[in-house]
Write a structure and sequence with these properties.
196 residues, mainly beta, four-stranded antiparallel sheet, three-stranded antiparallel sheet, disordered N terminus
Amino acid sequence: ESCIFSGWVDADGKFIASSEERLKEYLKNTDKTELTLYARIRTKSIVEDFDYTGEIQEFTAPVKGYYKLETWGASGGNGLLDNDIGYGGNGGYSVVEVYLLEGQTVYIGVGGQGNDLSKYSIAVDGGFNGGGNSRSNNDTVWGSGGGATHIALTKQGDGQLTNYENDNEDILVVAGGGGGGGITKGVAVKIGRAHV
């Protein structure tokens, strides 16, 4: 079975460091006789991917330890006008390492891709989890924004980011969605990607 290195704890089980560099930094400021208090923790490698479903998903930690959480925001939609395309921006990427207890559940909102908009459309909704809506006018069209991807300690309301306005400390990590691409009479505009 593959193993990953998780970190060092002291004799009481208190976490000290997750890497050798952090351990060395810690030891610079402590009595060297405490070296015997550290032990390596090894756990099974756990990798789970969550794809877009349009709903909040759950992950329950099978063991206590440090988990690396990675998120990718969804891409924005394209603006389509005649034979020209204004491509939507890419979503952002964010990563964090968090400690989870055995049996602790986190809630995952995978952002939905923004919708394309053509000159014949009136409006399109943004992608799931906060993507901005878009409308066209006589000579300009914009795709809608991609939704953010986040992982949170709790599920507020339906679990989308808009429900965490007063509880943002529950959000562990978030990656913003890409902006919608636009086009005006042959001039394409690509909105830059968000990175939180």
